[in-house]
Design brief:
Elements: H1 3-13, E1 17-19, H2 30-35, E2 41-43, E3 64-66, E4 87-89, E5 110-112, E6 133-135, E7 156-158, E8 179-181, E9 200-202, E10 211-213, H3 214-222, E11 245-249, H4 251-256, E12 264-267, E13 274-276, H5 286-298, E14 299-305, E15 310-316, H6 329-340, E16 344-345, E17 354-355, E18 358-366, E19 369-378, H7 381-390, E20 394-396, E21 398-401
Parallel strand pairs: 1-2, 2-3, 3-4, 4-5, 5-6, 6-7, 7-8, 8-9, 10-19, 13-18
Antiparallel strand pairs: 11-12, 11-21, 14-15, 16-17, 18-19, 18-20
């Protein structure tokens, strides 16, 4: 045996945790395969590995695998057979895709994919029922999939320095979520609904983010979690899409207070298809009413906002909330809207109706955060009037659609 291999074999035999960082390794050492069946943690950070060997699945006692700072471009399908893994760190590599086999890592608790070239996360990752930490910062992800909000044990989500334009609406109903970090993205809005788990949300350096919903604003204010300088007056006019855009007149208000501020364009979430002014006497579509009826029959979802606290309650009314529809494009859209959750809950505390695609909207400047444009959604004209009458926390602004 080569003297170096002999030395490595002896080191492996004497350890349970193997630290072989910064050794200029270009291949995963096969000596680990021959003598390391007992190893539980492997650290091969800052080497020059370009791949993982197919025999890696034979290391059936390894629970923590750290491959940070290598040159890995692809992952073998055999990685999915390491179902004993609880921590997997593949950060700072050359990955462009994550294989579907990663969804087989049923015991995985922490997954680190930072500093790669990933554009999307595979649907199979939704099977990671024990995942607590998902970190995908410094990639090229345009959209986080809705299923991230359905990971039952997810506590921390890090997606800084990507290309995100919105966050999954389903995150608002995630029961264990304690931290969301989405700094340095392209977010145009945060979810309008408050978060049932009341997480800490870090979102600075999103230059197109220029407003916040009434429930979420109060939720963050009550936790002292608003970051100064988050909100700008920029608008991304280079992107053409079908989202509703509103021109909000703020200039007159600020000139009265000797403050120079231009009028602002805000973009609403894509789920909203129709909005009404507070005094507009309109009737909700049958589509919207049907969504509200089906949702309230299956879920208990309430919102209570006061100047000192925000209470959000969400739970399925039945053990199984599977929605059975015949397959069609309309029913597929209906299914997605219901499972992703409502755009908001009516801010009239006496109502609590879910809002999906159609709402009466009040836009203003909140007295507790006078530099932040705030939107409040109501399910009907009567609720909008009631909220405007009894709420003394918002100075209403004039607005009109520009679509």
């Amino acid at each position: 045996m080569d003297p170096d291999d002999l030395e490595m074999a002896n080191e492996i035999k004497s350890k349970v945790i193997l630290h072989w960082n910064c050794r200029d390794l270009v291949e995963f050492p096969e000596v680990i395969r021959l003598h390391g069946s007992h190893i539980r943690e492997i650290y091969l950070k800052w080497n020059k590995l370009t791949t993982l060997p197919s025999w890696i699945m034979e290391l059936f006692n390894v629970t923590n695998l750290y491959m940070y700072g290598n040159l890995i471009k692809q992952l073998p399908v055999e990685l999915g057979k390491m179902t004993q893994l609880t921590v997997l760190d593949l950060s700072d590599n050359k990955l462009e895709q994550i294989p579907s086999c990663i969804g087989n890592l049923s015991n995985l608790k922490s997954l680190y994919l930072n500093d790669n070239f990933i554009e999307r996360l595979p649907f199979e990752m939704s099977q990671l029922s024990n995942l607590e930490i998902l970190s995908v910062s410094d990639n090229q992800i345009v959209a986080l999939p809705e299923w991230t909000g359905s990971l039952p044990k997810l506590k921390e989500l890090y997606a800084d320095h990507n290309r995100l334009k919105e966050l999954p609406n389903r995150l608002t109903t995630a029961s264990e979520l304690a931290m969301i970090s989405v700094c340095f993205n392209r977010l145009k809005y945060l979810p309008l609904n408050g978060f049932s788990s009341s997480p800490c949300i870090r979102f600075h350096a999103n230059k197109y983010l220029n407003y916040m919903s009434y429930p979420l604003l109060f939720q963050l204010l009550s936790q002292l979690r608003i970051t100064c300088g988050c909100f700008k007056t920029h608008y991304d006019a280079s992107v053409i899409n079908t989202n509703i855009k509103l021109y909000v007149e703020t200039k007159i208000l600020y000139e009265m207070n000797n403050v120079i501020m231009n009028d602002v364009i805000i973009e609403l979430p894509r789920q909203l298809l129709k909005i009404h002014e507070i005094h507009e006497n309109a009737i909700c579509s049958l589509w919207e009413l049907a969504l509200r009826k089906v949702y309230t029959d299956r879920y208990k979802h309430t919102l209570d906002v006061s100047s000192t606290k925000v209470t959000i309650f969400y739970r399925p009314l039945f053990k199984s909330t599977k929605l059975d529809f015949t397959l069609s494009s309309t029913n597929y859209t209906l299914y997605n809207l219901l499972t992703n959750g409502p755009t908001s809950i009516c801010v009239n505390s006496q109502c609590q109706q879910p809002i999906f695609t159609e709402a009466w909207i009040i836009i203003g400047i909140n007295c507790y955060a006078d530099s932040i444009i705030t939107t409040a959604l109501c399910c009907s004209k009567s609720c909008a009037n009631a909220f405007a009458t009894h709420s003394n926390t918002t100075i209403k602004l004039h607005w009109h659609t520009i679509n």
